[in-house]
Amino acid sequence: ASDLRVHVGSRVILQHPQAVAGGVRTVLTPMTVAGIHSLPLRVFAYLGPAAVSAFGLAGSTNELTVQPSAGHTAAELQRALLDVPHVASAQGMQATVDGIRSALNQFTSILNITSVIALLLVLLIAFNTASIGMDERSREHATMVAFGLPVPTVVGMTMAESVLIGTLGALAGVGIGYGLLAWLVATTVPSVAPDIGIALTLSGGTVLAAVLLGAGAVAIAPLFTLRRLRRMDVPSTLRVVE
Asked: Phi-psi bin for 14: left (phi > 0), alpha (psi -120 to 50), beta?
């Protein structure tokens, strides 16, 4: 409707096949837009029973919904229907839904693998950053320990700083990712999959998961330096002149 600039009540010219004796022909029929549906698959259009005559299909049926009788399964009914002449296909009501769900599951599985790889990269970067930061702040940590601050407390302070940085980084990443996704939906998706209407949404659960994973990954990294801090030679570290 948006592409055609029409709304409820608009008149459109529909080009469609019409059944005639000996075959079909292509005709143009003016029709009124009675409603606009929100189905993401844009290839579907729906017509009321009054439009049947325009297609030359008055008195014809192209689809029947049947249920198996007691003592029979849907698979038995499907096999029996396929033996009936002129029956082109017989499938369960859930077949289309299951097919779409299976395709979406495959797509989300790829995204999940990508997310795991990204999380491992974040852990690796966070560990390297924590290790470098521990070397650069060795005198600061040695001073804290020399004044009686327990090593776990020093690590806890480092973890608190990492959580703050990770949270800010996760929020920045969500914002940049949302902007990139909006650009893809507005430019690339319509040209690649014009028959699918995609609505851009960002749930609070997604933001929360990103923040928790981002902050959690960088918060865990300082724990790997705990052993090095316990083995640190405080006098020697304090004597180092930068």
From this structure: beta
Residues 6+ apart with CB under 8 A from 167: 211, 214, 215
Total Cβ atoms within 10 A of residue 193: 11
Cα-atom radius of gyration of the chain, to the nearest Å? 32
State the alpha helices, DSSP H only, in 40-146: 74-82, 95-136, 138-146
pLDDT tens by residue, 39-85: 887 788 888 888 888 898 888 777 888 888 888 888 888 888 888 88
Running DSSP on this structure, what letter comes out for residue 41? B
Q: Write down the pTM of the prediction.
A: 0.54
Paired residues of 23 in beta bridges: 20
Cα 174 to Cα 208: distance, rounded to the nearest angstrom? 10
Alpha-carbon span 21 to 188, nearest angstrom? 45
Nearest-angstrom CA–CA distance, 101 and 94: 10
**Beta carbons of 14 and 29 less than 8 angstroms apart:** yes
Dihedral (CA of 84, 85, 86, 89) sign: positive
Rounded Cα distance between 81 and 91, Å, is 10
